[in-house]
Automatic annotation (TrEMBL):
Motif (Histidine triad motif): 106-110
Name by which UniProt lists this protein: Histidine triad (HIT) family protein
Organism expressing this protein natively: Brachymonas denitrificans DSM 15123
Gene3D superfamilies membership: HIT-like
Regions crossing the membrane: none
Length: 121
């Protein structure tokens, strides 16, 4: 089934609570947690619980799920201390593939914010 975990996927294990993480949010489809190696004062990841390897794996059937991630991101960003738009804000990054900088092959959305220095990195 689509909910099957990939046995060697670290983010499947995090979503299942089998590897500890600092949880930001959870529902039946999505899990969010702080990045272990943050690039900025606010840096968390939103993942589908379902193992989708990357953006390149998406089909039309995933449109609603991806929409939920994208509408959840701004809500969680404010909860995690990002200041409101337009003075505040954050970056949303989805690294895809080797040349796209993707290291973990379970789709994840970075939400990165906090006061600038980091912003143009
Ligand atoms: P990518 O380069 O694939 O877009 O980003 C993977 C991100 O996952 C990196 O920012 C990395 O710090 C984070 N990460 C990798 N392993 C773990 C882990 O075990 N726990 C947490 N919380 N973050 C992780
Ligand atoms: Zn996975």
């Amino acid at each position: 089934t689509p909910m099957d975990k990939h046995p060697d996927c670290i983010f499947c294990k995090i979503a299942a609570g089998e590897i500890p993480s600092r949880k930001v949010y959870e529902d039946d489809e999505l899990f969010a947690f702080h990045d272990i190696s943050p690039w900025a004062p606010v840096h968390f990841l939103i993942i589908p619980k379902q193992h989708i390897p990357s953006m390149a794996s998406l089909t039309d059937a995933d449109a609603a799920l991806m929409g939920r991630i994208m509408t959840l991101a701004p809500q969680l960003a404010l909860e995690q201390g990002c200041e409101p738009y337009p003075q505040g804000g954050y970056r949303i990054v989805i690294n895809t593939g080797e040349q796209g900088g993707q290291e973990v092959h379970h789709l994840h959305v970075h939400v990165i914010g906090g006061p600038r220095p980091w912003a143009k990195g």
